[in-house]
Design brief:
With 209 residues, this protein is mostly helical. The chain contains ten helices and no strands.
């Protein structure tokens, strides 16, 4: 898979290394060097640790940047559960991160974590409305509904589409929920997981947060 762009295109707020205790500075430098030397399969671990260090040091912006870089690498290597774990860290720090919530919802569907998928869907739609991203969010959750066989999730998507102002699509999804799903539904768990992972990668490659 081709190398992915950084998770956030906006540069993190500038924080001088001198503002961090010397031991943090040395650890961060060591983790950066470890990430540069590591193969793709192991590069996410030092980046994730670097995010943890920055967060404990109170550098929220740099922590988000490291977490985002870790997610890039993990998705690139198809490590969806590890990517979910790091994405959840971003949400704890930045609950309104619209793109992260979208990615999490796709990864929840890939892993068949339906309870958390419903929660992340709700939070994703609410954050998108606050950010004025109704159109792209409506398209994303409609695409989720097209491949998902679970009626409960389809019903939640239909309600969300109504909230976003897409009444026609909401009616269509409700019909799928009352029948056998959409014509494109993926009932094979492995096929669904692969599709949702690729969709999560696609979300991550978008330039806008």
């Amino acid at each position: 898979m081709a190398a992915l762009p950084r998770w956030f295109t906006r540069k993190p707020e500038s924080v001088s290394r001198a503002q961090l205790p010397r031991n943090w500075q040395k650890e961060l430098e060591a983790l950066e060097e470890e990430a540069e030397r590591a193969s793709r399969a192991f590069r996410g671990t030092p980046l994730n640790k670097a995010g943890d260090l920055c967060l404990r040091a109170g550098d929220r912006a740099r922590a988000l940047d490291y977490y985002g870089r870790a997610i890039d690498v993990l998705l690139e290597d198809s490590q969806r559960e590890a990517a979910r774990g790091v994405a959840n860290k971003i949400i704890r720090v930045h609950p309104q991160a619209v793109r992260t919530l979208c990615t999490l919802t796709w990864l929840d569907l890939a892993s068949r974590h339906m309870a958390t998928a419903l929660l992340h869907l709700r939070d994703y739609v609410e954050a998108a409305k606050r950010a004025g991203q109704e159109a792209i969010t409506g398209d994303q959750i409609y695409q989720m509904a097209r491949v998902t066989p679970q009626d409960e999730f389809l019903g939640a998507v239909a309600d969300s589409l109504d909230q976003l102002g897409f009444a026609d699509r909401a009616s269509e999804v409700r019909q799928w929920a009352g029948g056998e799903g959409s014509p494109d539904v993926l009932t094979d768990p492995d096929g669904l997981a692969e599709h949702c992972l690729l969709a999560a990668v696609g979300v991550n490659m978008r330039k806008s947060r």
